[in-house]
Structure formats: C-alpha cells, structure tokens
Amino acid sequence: MLSWSRLPEGASKVDGARPPWHQWCQGGLAPLGLAVTLAVCHIPEARAVDVDPLRLELTGAPGEVVTGALTVTNHRAEPVRVAARPGPYRYAFTTHTVLPKNPQAQRLPSCEPWLTIVAPEAPIAEHAAATIQYTVTIPAAAGQQPAGEYVAAVLVDELPPHPTPLPPGERAQGEGTITILPRVAIPVYVLIAGRTGPSGRIAALVAEATQPGTTRLLLTLANDGATHLRPSGTVIVSNNRGEVVSRLPLGRTIPIFPGFQEGIPFLIPLAPGRYTAVVTVQFGAPELHQQTLAFKVTADGRVQTVR
Fold it and tell me: What pTM did the predictor assign?
C-alpha cells in the first residue's frame, strides 16, 4: 500500500510544482533479461508533514540579501527527518492558457542559484515543528536585466528511516528497494524592486452552451506587466428582471505570468431567458476592472450574445 501527502495550494498544477514524491532506490538494477524483485516500503499515513507558507513571494533590490524561514510541522506520533534544497520552478498550464508568441518569454528566468538553505536537513520530534531558514542573494547584475521577476522552488522531502543493511548473502542479484516518499514543493517568486507593478486587463468575456441547461462563461485575463498576477474578483449573473441568479467568486487564480493570458471558465445552470453577466476583477492594484456581457439562452439550449 502506498500513500503520499497532499499537494499544497499553489504548489501543484496551480503553481507548477512537481509531484509531491520522489524515489529512493537501494541496490542495483538487474541486467536486462533477469527478473527484478522490488520491495516497496509502506509510507505512514498522508499529511504527516505540513509546510507553511505554501509559497514565497519576495521582493528585493539588486545586491540585496533576503532572508526568511519555512515552518515544517510533524503531525505524526513519531519523529521524522526532513531535507530541503533549492529546485527549479515547475510550470503547468491549463487548457485555457495562452502563451506569449515569443518563445523566449514563455519561461521566467530562474533564481535557483540565488537560493541557499541554511540547514538542509533537520530532525523533527513527534507532534512538533521546526524551521527551515533560507537566504536569497540577489546579484547586483539583476538590475541590468530586463526581467522583473525570477522563480525557483524549495523542495522539502520527508526522508526515509536510516536503512538497515541486509546481511551478506540475503540480497539476491537484481533485488532492490523502492521507497516512495512525500515531497512538498514551495514555489518561490523573487520580484525585483523598482520594476513595474501589476498591470492586468480583461481580455475577453464570452458565453457559450456546454450541455442542456448549463451555460459556460469564459473569462480571459491578460498580464501586460513585468511580474506575475493573482487576480481576484466576482462574477454576478442577473436575469432580465434584475434578479441575481448566480454570484461566483473568482478567488485567487493560478499565477498569470508576464505576457500570458489565462481563461477561467464558470459553469452556470440557466433556464431559457435573457441574462447579464458583470465581472469585476482586481489585479493587485487598488483599481477595479469591470466588464459586462448581455446574452440569452434559447429554448433549444443555444447561447447568443445580445448587442
């Protein structure tokens, strides 16, 4: 039986982190044509270790050293060991992501070399917590680069118990052990101070039929700035009598990177009739962005825009 810890918010497909596990292998691989016996080690129940915060959004000037700490909590009734190290940022895009046309703008530059873990490995007692301290050393040359943001990750692994070597002769050729262990990937965003702030816009709002009785609103947001955005907002749908029939929060979306567009679908059950959708979005700055769409749902289930 295998189990693994849940992905934290902002560290899976939402923030592009790698899966929360990796493999530890002991023993060699058998040559081709030989049978391989694998002993899979059971991992204690999921959510043994939690990490807080689930993402690091840091701001610093070129030449500055930014410090901070992660808190790792052990929920088990036995001690655990964890290890932390810098890693690459893992991207994941939805089916509604629109990438920049310039291939060089489709990835942010990495700040993995800037990131240092002060104590890479730490034991944590049962039902206790420990801190993982980090430093981010922003090179002075970052001020001469056009990028306004750099990304990386802190990979926090729960280590296996110290292995007990098998006595000589008890391990046959080709036998080995695979242990699947939890990993939490904390995304790291380093914003260069003095660069342009958030700059987003509503690129499109359309209504379309999906299945009988359900209308899909597709809201497309664009990032025209130099750093990632986490928009929030609401979608309110009213009927032709002005009655609110649906109120949906936009919430904090996945990060939208510079030059990217992201579509956010909303599935709303609507009977035939005329409707107005009002979308209000905040991109981090105080001002609000708003767009209105009038549409009707026909008796045969089609959705038509009303101009």
Answer: 0.75
